[in-house]
Design goal:
single chain, 26 helices, alpha/beta, 637 residues, 5-stranded parallel β-sheet
Length: 637
Amino acid sequence: MEAIRKSYNRLNVLSDDELAPALDAETPNHDAKIDCLAKIFGLDQNRMKLDFVVTDCIVSAKTGETLEIKYSGLSGDFSEVCKNMEKSINSAVEADLNRALKNRKNEDFEYMMENYLGSTCLVMLGLYNTELTDKSQMEEVLKKLVDLALRLPSKPATETGKVNQLKLKALTTLAVHYTDLNKQEPTGNPWFTPIKYQLIDEKVFLVRGDNQIEYGFEFTDFIRLAVTPLTQKAYNYNFNANNAQLAGSFYGPAGTGKTETVKDFASKLGRDCFVVNCSDQMSAETIDRMLNGVNESNYICFDEFNRILPEVLAEVAVVFEKHAGKNIFVTLNPGYAGRTQLSDELHSKFYNCDENENDKSYKSGMAMLVPDYSLICEVQLYCQGVTTASSLAKIFVGALEFFKENTSKQSHYDYGMRTAIHFCRYFGILKRNDQETCEKQLFMNAWDCTIGYKLTSEDALFSEKYFEDIFPGIKPKHTVPECFKSEPHAQKLAMLEQILSVRHSAAVVSKDKNNGVVKRFIEIKKAQVETVALGDAWVWPAENVDMSGMGEALAAYRKLQESENELAILLFADCQKGSPVVMEPLNTVMDDNKVLILESSNERLCLNENMRLVFEFENCDCLSPASVSRLGILYLE
């Protein structure tokens, strides 16, 4: 096993249980090989099993984008199979970009969306902006993209339509950034040096001042983050860490974009980023093996790095030294329960940023504390086709900040970035379904779904009075679907449906264990449901938590992965006040990655589009902020 891992570095990201069936020479297992290839390269293994052998097409697991490759098959030595796959992917992605470079004539990005990969479209937009002589022309590009967002259907009927919608959002996100960047005067602060694409000797580079990194040709996720000043600073930090041949570290509270920024930068470079969800079960040997799986081109990010035990971290400094020069990043949540302090020796392995006092408060790395919510929301709303995005984003963020300071302190309240993102997404759903209604009215409807449904009755009255001054005479309006109208809890059932339309993880919080809302919702929607009752595992604090019931939860999850029902719900019943120990392993599947990562084997189980996680809590007193932020909440008094 170790010999073949040495023959192809990416095999190190697979567990022994995943890899062994693919290596069995006596009983060749094509499905096992496809599963391994899918996990190594971020592909949809189900689509590969259906189409790959016949069509030589692969599909991105994250975006659903299709790439045609020239591939020599699955037979023979598996390390050679993997190497051939990597070469085929790199060649196909490079050919796509070269075709676009050869044929470029104007800024017809609608044409590009139809004919090129998402990553190619974004590179072309970046080159277009770099080469503009009249920078105001980018504003016209942005207007065209926002108009196109309203012309595309809210729920595309085809896979190509869905991918094009994602391409459009990514293009709009960067068009907003370039439009703002073109208006800015240079700050003189080297930490905010603009990053741009540039064509040098017929090759594409990402350029920062005198530094440049050549674009790679991985089949990457093309979804992009909104570029805020904090993001620009992080890009510069990544350049500096790369130049210094040191690892990078981002620290700060949950939901500030630490991990996503690392992934975003890697994608911007056309490189792969492998994210490892850290735990107290990890060993230095495991970390070393994973780092063996990363070459000097691609990236690896150890998420929540300081969950690892102190005695293990003491050995990790030597491991990082062994792999110096690779693109290693970690994220940290200092001050959270169960988090470990890093040693001075380990701090020395990370590049240090000292741009401001927040950065200087920690011995290494860069602080990511407060993202620019207003700009992020503006970008998100533009992507949703909201024409008054700039003014409504400011109103929304102002309300978030005011409510955070002035409403009652409830353990199930969250006014962070994930709430903001889901507000924008739901606003977009409403906008595309009803383009005639005033955007202020749609704002109030979206606010009610993402914020209002979790408020206590007293705070709900506070919300109503707050918005009377901002939008006089406008109150939230919701239509109760016909299937719920005859029900005693019709409005609550409609609320839960709205939450689940924009969130894949939700919780009903109520002291009344017999409220029956979730049960009746499942019955009416004819959802397939697997119910998991973990009993005393939810009791917290506790010296020893019995996690044996998680095996039942895993079996239920796997069963729902096979469901062809329109809605499949994994229901965690009677969760009491929650438990950070139980919820922590579920955080990865509850965030936008939608992947359940098994810490014992590093196996990754995707959450299908029809799947939802639903919890029933008495309150959220024992949940971490990270878990609360990942849940859409329906509060019942």
